[in-house]
Design goal:
Layout: E1 2-8, H1 14-24, E2 27-30, H2 31-38, H3 44-53, H4 66-75, H5 77-102, E3 108-112, E4 126-131, H6 134-144, H7 149-158, H8 162-167, E5 171-174, H9 179-194
Parallel strand pairs: 1-3, 1-4, 2-3, 4-5
The protein binds adenosine-5'-diphosphate.
Length: about 220
Amino acid sequence: MILIGLTGGIGSGKSTVSSLLAKHGAVIIDADAITRELQAPGAPLLTVLAERFGAHILDTEGGLIREELAKIAFSDPDALKDLNKIVHPAVAKEMDRRMTEVRDTDKVVVLDIPLLAENPRKGLCGVVVVDVPVDVAVSRLTEFRGMKEDDARSRIAKQASREERLKIADQVIDNSGDLSTLSTQVDAVWAWAAQLPPAVHDAGSREGDESATDKS
Ligand code: ADP
């Protein structure tokens, strides 16, 4: 496999880029989507979360009440640490499982990770950063995703800065233009990705996380 890291701040257009790459034939491994799947009603991880944080974080159908969990996690640093300790390894394991499935193919595999600059990965063949000015991200988040401006700005402020993200980029997609300009840039990134040398054996695990390497 050719393993690419894809990142961008909230509202940059990362998900849009991810779908365009999928249309070219990339296998997308999306950290946020996996996190949501692992927390779907009835998922085993919810039992673990309820044991640590209390049954009141679940509704009567066994679904996660995200606001209840967020209230606890963001008011108590130990709770946040425990939450991360429960969720992160589960997500990492599932990402690893999906990478293992395609590791020996010639596919282009895209690890779609919002916080890649904050949590680097080993052995990526290349990193693609989707970049937009903060004001553009805010206006798209308010216009298309129904977010309040304050909320959008405070979420952006909690993530890595544009400069920090650009430092890890091999390819930068400037998404300040229209969707057709974006699509042309994605075509170019696809052509670039397709000619990269394949990933080494333990590529994709988190830097500093020896337990997450592929032992197969
Ligand atoms: P992210 O995944 O980085 O948070 P999205 O891909 O969801 O961002 O994009 C945020 C919003 O902006 C979405 O509604 C998306 O359809 C829209 N969008 C993305 N790129 C463009 C663009 N170039 N022009 C107009 N709207 C865009």
